[in-house]
Design the sequence.
């Protein structure tokens, strides 16, 4: 393991969808990721393209504090990025106890590691799901009133970290992610699931396609993390991470169909509609643009085109 504390960085959920994209970028930039992952929603094969000398893997549940501390004994990284969470809404709705155990108790466990290892900076990935539903783009100061168990657990985890990080004088950056899409996503989120269905058939069953979401390509999110890591000041704060534009589900399908050059017949299925769903979820990213000096490089069309191309290359 690298003994240089300055380039060591803990990444929980580091082999998951967002995590593996981030880890690969960190390694390219000279960081040494210490990955914590239990592989409940990730694939160890994603690490095959990376040299084992470039990272350190801890295969563990985030609530197993004793095991994690034992694995990093004598190592004192200065930063931790906490990505690990249960985030697929249908699963969270059916499993509220497990969702709270991972998203809230797991965050508390990770903070115990932060405190005991005297880590100075924590980056926590929260969600736009913490906001009270609104047809307007959400600002960071908007009222928090989540409508599902996922949003509620993220709100509770945020509140815990605010209090504890203030008490122990730890820099805390909270990123409220909106809808992230891109390569390596194993969860049946809307975009990867639609792409999979379109590849297999000329007709697909769909639920409500009129809800609007703010979709951000994963590479743009990775750049947010890098921006924050390179900042010497202003690391404390809450930032909405999205594009600032919302798109309906029907727009997504039409774009994928256009890029894939495949005509699709849509069949409405009421069982696919969520009982408790926001009509719109969009980020106001003015604060993020001004403070982090970041803006997305991908619009929805070229992000989807990139994803479809990467998927086609995997099959060759």
Sequence:
């Amino acid at each position: 393991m690298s003994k240089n504390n300055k380039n060591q960085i803990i990444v929980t959920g580091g082999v998951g969808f967002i995590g593996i994209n981030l880890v690969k970028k960190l390694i390219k930039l000279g960081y040494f990721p210490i990955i914590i992952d239990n592989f409940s929603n990730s694939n160890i094969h994603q690490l095959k393209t990376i040299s084992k000398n470039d990272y350190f893997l801890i295969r563990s549940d985030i609530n197993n504090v004793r095991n994690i501390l034992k694995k990093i004994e004598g190592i004192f990284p200065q930063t931790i990025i906490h990505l690990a969470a249960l985030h697929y809404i249908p699963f969270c709705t059916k499993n509220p106890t497990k969702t709270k155990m991972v998203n809230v108790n797991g965050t508390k466990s990770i903070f115990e590691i932060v405190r005991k290892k005297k880590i100075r900076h924590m980056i926590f990935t929260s969600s736009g799901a913490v906001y009270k539903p609104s047809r307007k783009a959400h600002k960071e100061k908007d009222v928090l009133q989540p409508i599902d168990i996922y949003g509620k657990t993220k709100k509770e985890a945020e509140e815990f970290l605010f209090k504890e990080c203030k008490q122990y004088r730890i820099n805390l950056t909270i990123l409220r992610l909106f809808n992230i899409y891109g390569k390596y996503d194993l969860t049946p989120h809307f975009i990867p699931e639609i792409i999979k269905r379109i590849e297999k058939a000329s007709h697909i069953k769909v639920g409500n396609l009129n809800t609007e979401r703010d979709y951000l390509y994963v590479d743009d999110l990775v750049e947010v993390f890098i921006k924050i890591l390179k900042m010497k000041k202003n690391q404390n704060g809450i930032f909405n991470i999205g594009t600032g534009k919302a798109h309906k589900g029907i727009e997504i399908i039409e774009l994928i169909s256009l890029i894939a050059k495949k005509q699709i017949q849509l069949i409405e299925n009421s069982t696919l509609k969520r009982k408790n769903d926001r009509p719109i979820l969009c980020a106001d990213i003015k604060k993020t643009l001004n403070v982090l000096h970041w803006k997305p490089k991908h619009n929805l069309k070229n992000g989807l085109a990139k994803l479809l191309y990467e998927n086609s290359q995997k099959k060759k």
In short: Residues 183 and 307 are 6 Å apart (CA to CA). The mean pLDDT is 93.
